[in-house]
Write a structure and sequence with these properties.
The protein is mainly beta and 483 residues long. Helices cover 12% and strands 40% of the residues. Strands 20, 21, 23, 25, 26, 27 and 29 form a seven-stranded mixed sheet that branches. A hairpin with a 2-residue loop joins strand 25 and strand 26.
Length: 483
């Protein structure tokens, strides 16, 4: 009853809402067409058929203006049922894009129209909420502000992905079967040793009850992929973006990989991290920035005055594989960069997260509801869970505090649909952290987030590792429109 009646209410509201603000509606009265199709991608010299998410000209993704409507006609030109989730936006629940929660999948040949306020600016993305995401059914979704348009800077969007010639179903079966190599599980002992070293160096306090050094090994990467891509290309043939000498560049980096975390390396140019998950933060300067699945980073670069070539690399977590693009002035010779680095990429930890401070914190308020969620998993059976004492039911306009504890030996980037939350605690340390929609929980870590229940629905809370979600690591936060 909840789903049927609530869907009817929200669908009606979504149709009426755009007419309430004629100024906003006039900004984009004609729907943008977004086409789900198939395309051929050449990886490592071999052709593969993958999904595409483009406009009619074949350009991937969407670029919209803040304060207007998300006014889109979604066309499924494949022979397969599918649906698209607008990751980072806060649409009505009826338009969220998770099949049968509540809307049905988009049938082959079907067209569906979406219209709702797009919200503020930010770096977002869109993707299938099924195994089709592995087959590259994903694209950038960029919302620009008036300030973005006015700035004298070059914008470069980078979508990262992990690629396999195997089908996602084969990869999942390999994980469940306990095989090794492509599609199988990888030993993580070395990763655990590196993680413990990182934690010691960062003085990161584990939660009470953390096992001693004799604990089971951490597992970093479930799958050995055939390639790691940046904007559909490997470093054997990377995208080269021409820049001005002394120019300013804004990188909008999206980790669209299904099961791979990276560290972004800006090399000789120190970057300024200015936003996470599309929301501004107090800038942080560095040359390496961790990014887990589903997360986004906005990094501003001030390039040197002379000619030069500036690789922007994504280092695979705990392994030597890397991908990326190259920024280069017009008169620069670009050297070859290997797809394999000389040393392993860093193991992601929470040191940076503890230092992030949002530019737009939640209003000061005590939580009305508090929940605990424990993340668990069985690597042998490849089964993952979010354990709670009961349903995560809240009421509209409540402030909700959610304490998540990862009691498994894999990291989990946890994503909440339809909302942005503020990170307010890590491993017992309380602070006013970043506002975002996806936060990483490393093994044995505790992360506390808060959000306001301002968008009624039955909203997924899940791990953004595709195969963890597919094998059970998803639950729902539910509330209706009544106070």
């Amino acid at each position: 009853m909840f789903r049927r009646e609530f869907l009817k209410t929200l669908a009606s509201a979504a149709i009426v809402a755009p007419t309430l603000n004629s100024t906003r509606a006039l900004a984009n009265p004609v729907p943008a067409e977004l086409v789900i199709g198939k395309r051929t991608l050449v990886v490592n010299g071999k052709a593969a058929t993958v999904f595409g998410l483009t406009d009619r000209s074949g350009k991937p993704g969407l670029v919209l203006d803040a304060g207007t409507d998300f006014n889109v006609r979604l066309l499924n030109e494949t022979s397969t049922d599918t649906l698209i989730h607008w990751h980072g936006l806060t649409p009505p629940w009826s338009m969220d894009g998770v099949p049968d929660n509540p809307a049905a999948s988009l049938a082959a040949g079907e067209i569906r129209e979406y219209r709702f306020p797009v919200g503020p600016g930010g770096t977002h993305w869109m993707h299938a909420h099924t195994l089709q995401e592995q087959s590259m059914l994903a694209a950038p979704l960029i919302v620009r502000t008036a300030e973005d348009h006015a700035r004298d800077e070059q914008e470069v969007v980078i979508l990262l992905h992990d690629f396999s010639f195997k089908s996602p179903e084969e990869l999942l079966e390999g994980l469940k079967g306990g095989g090794s190599g492509h599609g199988g599980k990888q030993s993580g002992h070395q990763g655990m040793m590196q993680m413990m070293s990182n934690m010691h160096g960062q003085h990161q306090r584990p939660i009470s009850g953390m096992p001693p050094m004799g604990m089971p090994a951490m597992d970093l990467n479930d799958i050995e992929y055939d390639a790691y891509l940046a904007n559909d290309r490997t470093l054997d043939d990377p995208e080269v973006v021409r820049t001005e000498k002394g120019g300013r560049v804004r990188l909008r980096i999206i980790n669209g990989a299904t099961a791979t975390a990276f560290t972004i390396n800006t090399g000789s140019v120190v970057g300024s991290l200015i936003a996470v998950d599309g929301i501004d933060i107090a800038p942080i300067s560095a040359s390496r920035f961790p990014i887990s699945m589903g997360q986004r980073l906005d990094i501003r670069l001030e390039l040197p005055a002379g000619p030069g070539s500036y690789p922007i690399l994504a280092l695979r977590e705990g392994a030597k594989e890397q991908t990326g693009i190259i920024l280069a002035t017009k008169d620069t010779v670009i050297g070859k960069i290997d797809t394999t680095a000389s040393e392993n990429g860093p193991v992601l930890e929470l040191g940076l997260e503890q230092h992030l401070r949002t530019a737009t914190p939640l209003a000061g308020r005590s939580p009305d509801r508090q929940f605990d969620a424990t993340l668990t998993g069985d690597m042998a059976a490849y089964s993952w869970k979010i354990e709670t004492a009961g349903p995560l039911n809240v009421a509209r306009d409540q402030r909700v505090r959610l304490t998540m504890r990862n009691m498994s030996m894999m990291s989990h980037p946890m994503h909440l649909h339809g909302h942005h939350f503020q990170v307010v605690g890590i491993n017992g340390q309380r602070f006013s952290g970043a506002v975002r929609d996806t936060v990483l929980l490393t093994p044995m870590a505790e992360v506390v987030v808060e959000f306001d229940a301002s968008n009624p629905g039955r909203w997924p809370l899940h791990c953004h590792h595709l195969y963890h979600m597919a094998t059970g690591m998803m639950t729902f936060i539910t509330y209706d429109g009544e106070i």
